[in-house]
Amino acid sequence: MDINGWSRRKYLFAAGSSVSALSGCSERIDAATENDPSRDENSPNREPYQLQPGTYNTIVIFRNDDPQPGFRSEALRKVEEIFIDTAVPLTSGVIPMLPDNKLTAESEFCGALRRRDRRVPELFEYSLHGQTHQTKTNFYGGSEFGGRSFEHQRQDISRGASQLTDCIGRRPSTFVPPLNTYDETTVQALLTEDIDVVSGGKWFTDQYYEPQPLPFEADGALHVPGTHDIVADWQTVEFVPLEELKTEFDEANRLFVCMLHYHHFTDEERLRYLEKLVSYVADHDDAGCMTLGTFGDAYLSGDLTWSDNSWDYAPNSEQEES
């Protein structure tokens, strides 16, 4: 059955919503409601999203790196609109302290992030994406954090987390390292800020931690590396052919963590590419879409478990049993 041309997805709205149960990744949000200027911006348009309890072959996390003030804000808005329209969760790694442009709670950029968070609660997560996104060591080809002392890393993470907290109104619980690289010291520094989920690159974790089933726990944190990238060639910023990326999703085992950079979507052709990819993923009933943070919370709490070649999602199971 279709709703306005969109297949029903496997998401639930909390009590009081007009839609009770969906199958697949998501349900389209009424754009007219989302953009209604008369609506109180302090009130959400919808109740928070929750993945429906059940069994899934693949968990999907879309990771959008580099949101920052003053840089291609229209591209960011259009990318986020795609995820709003398809109601697929998106984790954005926000750079908190660019050398010449730091986050401030009063800025239009931070105000826009807070408004989106209120309008579609739990659909977007804003993760800490380093501090300044500068290359500070040659660790694994380049890193902002790997290879530095604990105190230097802790200070940068603490400052970045405070800046992002002031911007979005809640403290980040996940970390996306610039250049996808970090070390054991980074993880220990993150834990001092109560950040216990980190998403670097699979190419990096395969070398630093050795190849293993994803996600994995090490050094006291949960590691959920990016498994796929929309960009095929970083010199030309050529995208992976859409049909090839769809096939990679179809063949994904356990996790499909897809990395994108919003500032690459500056024309209609590339925006259509992203819309087709997100819609294709959302149309699969055996795929469950989550943010990096909700995945980490569910996995670490035991609400999301992997067995018999599939994921079982049973939120609040312990509370219900008691």
From TrEMBL:
Annotated region (Disordered), positions in chain: 32-51
The superkingdom of the source organism is Archaea
**Pfam families from the UniProt entry:** DUF2334
Q: Which GO terms describe its biological process?
A: carbohydrate metabolic process
Q: Residue ranges under compositional bias (Basic and acidic residues)?
A: 32-44
> InterPro entries given for it?
DUF2334 (IPR018763), Glyco_hydro/deAcase_b/a-brl (IPR011330)
Return the protein name.
Answer: DUF2334 domain-containing protein
Q: Which organism is it from?
A: Halorubrum ezzemoulense
Taxonomic path: Archaea, Methanobacteriati, Methanobacteriota, Stenosarchaea group, Halobacteria
